[in-house]
Amino acid sequence: MDAEPNDRKIGKLCEYALRNPLRIPKITSNLEQRCFKDLRNENFGCVKAVLCIYRKLLSSCKEQMPLFASCLLGIIRALLEQTRQDEMRILGCNALVCFMGEHCHISMDFDSLPRSYQKIYEAWH
Asked: How many Cβ atoms are within 10 Å of 92's Cβ, its own excluded?
């Protein structure tokens, strides 16, 4: 999938998630599984589409963020660990910045993230 993600379809999915917040864990679990599969298969266009969906979820479903934060953080970690794919690591960094920008009130559960990502960064150099 090299085409750009379909903004209209992403918008509809996010509207559905906003109207049906109890479905968000299932939606994001499927997105997470799809992203990991596409990373393994080096289908980076689909990975980019998943990140576009999460970016839209972050901006449109702020109240429901606790329902999908752990899946998104798992994807971010996987992207940052892609040692052979700089583009994927950059996408992971951008996703982390987007996540932190939308939710600067990160709870104690996320306090270990900066240390983890610093270790990954130091391992690159």
From this structure: 23
> By CB neighbour count within 10 A (0-12 exposed, 13-18 middle, 19+ buried), where does 40 fall?
exposed
- Residue 2 is assigned to a structural domain of this protein: no
Each residue's pLDDT tens digit, 48-62: 999 999 999 988 888
- pTM score, whole prediction: 0.76
Supply the DSSP string of the chain, one letter for each residue. Answer: --SPP-HHHHHHHHHHHHH-GGGHHHHHHHHHHHHHHHHHTT-HHHHHHHHHHHHHHHHH-GGGGGGTHHHHHHHHHHHHT-TT-HHHHHHHHHHHHHHHHH--S--GGGTTHHHHHHHHHHHH-
Domain count, the chain: 1
Regarding predicted confidence, which is higher, 28 or 116?
A: 28
Would you say residue 55 lies in a domain? yes
Name the token pair of 76: 């971010």
Alpha carbons 67 and 117: distance in angstroms, whole number: 22
